[in-house]
Amino acid sequence: MRSIVSLVALAVIGAGIAVSLDEIPFGAVKSRVGGHYVDLGREQTGASNIVTAVVVNYRGFDTLGEVTVLFVAAMGLGAVLATRRNKQKPDIESASLVLYTGCRFLFPLILLFGAYIFINGHLTPGGGFQGGAVVASAFVLVYLGCRGKKINETGSKLVESAGGLIFILVGFAGLAVGGHYFLSNYLPRGELNTLFSAGVIPIIYIAIGLKVGSELAGVIDRLVEEST
Amino acid sequence: MNWLQDTVYYIGAFGLVFIGLFVMLVKRNLIKVIIGLSILETGVNLFLVSVGYISRGTAPIFSNPLVETRTRVDPVPQALVLTAIVIGVAVLALALSLAIRLYQHYGTLDLSKIREQKW
């Protein structure tokens, strides 16, 4: 009964969507703002990755909101799961030799790769969110392979807060120094396609990368702690 | 044939959306409902990226000077999806933590047996 009702509802929704998608041809130019960013983005922001220019520069305020959503979700998870503490440590079966060795060998390399992704966010595909996710995946490997080890909670919270603070402080500095608006790009643009270019974009993206990485690592830590 | 080429991405994206919605509406196991939510989210992300596609466009990244002259796809939907994916992970973790607490409280993940969650 439930499935029949659901199927009928989905069919109605699907028909509505099909009718409205008829007006949106695939592959056509739909908005002028995207073309504007592509044409002028390099000059205006100094970043050769236009997606990064949109995320951090043109829509930096929006990104601040999204970072806040991420923070609230992580905090909500902490609030839901943080009731029982101070349990005695259960006996954890140690991981196999392959997993243990792989964890010890790969952990620093994955961290390095994540840092590379968010430091080069304004030059190559990548950025703070992707790099942060890669950094967090390194911590998943630690919880799988090097069981018993866990992240330093104070340190991870410190990094997380520092990342968020740098983002907001750079934004307010843009208000004061740039004199135009919150998160304006007031540092020199530099030469295109070099590491030290694009003004505040790399600074903000590194802050986002650290924040996302430590936040997701904290989420993993809480879930693992709950399951043991 | 040409018609299919133009709409295959929309069909795929909304296929995922509808699979996710159907799973969320029909399944009684809370973990499966959360999996449905995740599938739905993937479909929405795929749809947003395919809306931003411009015919024969390449990625809006100017690292390689050899492809300087080609058209670029719209960067705005990609920027939106980029953050949405990471937020999706955090929301998934939040949903799973709620599922953990529900299981500890009721001893089951079957939504039809949990009084307040019945429909």
Task: Describe the protein's topology.
The complex is a heterodimer of chains A (228) and B (119).
Chain A: H1 2-21, H2 32-45, H3 50-58, H4 60-81, H5 97-119, H6 128-145, H7 153-178, H8 201-227
Helix pairs in contact in A: 2-3, 3-4, 4-8, 5-6, 5-8, 6-8, 7-8
Chain B: H1 2-26, H2 30-51, H3 75-106
Helix pairs in contact in B: 1-2, 2-3
Descriptive account of the structure:
The complex is a heterodimer of chains A (228) and B (119). With 228 residues, chain A is mainly α. Chain A has one domain (2-227). Chain A has helices spanning 2-21, 32-45, 50-58, 60-81, 97-119, 128-145, 153-178, 201-227. Chain A is globular and about 60 Å long. Chain A starts with a helix and ends with a helix. By secondary structure, chain B is mostly helical. At the A-B interface, helix 1, helix 2, helix 3, helix 4 and helix 6 of A face helix 1 and helix 3 of B.
Summary, kept brief:
The complex is a heterodimer of chains A (228) and B (119). Chain A is mostly helical and 228 residues long.
Structural class of chain B: mainly alpha
Q: List the chains of the largest interface with their residue counts.
A: A-B, 60 and 43 residues
Low-confidence stretches of chain B: none
Mean pLDDT of chain B: 84
Characterize the overall form of chain A. Answer: globular
What structural category do the secondary elements of chain A indicate? mainly alpha
Question: What is the count of distinct domains of chain A?
Answer: 1
Please identify the oligomeric state: heterodimer
Largest sheet of chain B: none
**What is the element string of chain A, with H for helices and E for strands?**
HHHHHHHH
N→C terminal distance of chain A = 39 Å
CATH topology label of chain B: Helix Hairpins
Structural domains of chain B: how many: 1
- The helix tally of chain B amounts to 3
Shape type of chain B: elongated
Highest CATH level, the class of chain B: Mainly Alpha
**Helix content class of chain A:** 55-70%
Q: What is the succession of H and E elements of chain B?
A: HHH
Number of strands of chain B: 0
Beta percentage of chain B is under 5%
